[in-house]
Amino acid sequence: MPVHMIKLVVGAATIDDLLDWRAAHARAGEPWVLRTRMTPKRADEMVDGGSVYRVFKGVILCRQRILDVNTVGEGVTARCEITLDEQIVRVAPTPRRAFQGWRYLEAKDAPPDLDEAAFGEIPEELARQLREAGAW
């Protein structure tokens, strides 16, 4: 069973903000790489079907499939590079408290993907209001 990662998004309030940042900073043909300080000990489980779930302003809104995990450098200068799939999958908005760095997320605790065929594209502001009202 895959293990996922959960990570806070800093500097982007919405999925569209994240995509705009990616468009502004990506070079042609360059993979989407998430850089972190610590390499996950369970990296093999994460590459085997895991995703990075992204938290925007206290709510998990989307995920990206993990393609590869590599440690770059050695000793105190070592860093982790996680290569992600370009496709962003929206998930059921799920509240999540703030934390530092990243955490493992077991598959049983991961929010389900949104079925856009059944629900259509729900504007993020409407989804936020529905969550606050306790209707979603």
TrEMBL record:
Matching Pfam families: DUF1489
Alphabetized InterPro entries for the sequence: UCP032025
Top-level taxon of the source organism: Bacteria
Name of this protein: DUF1489 domain-containing protein
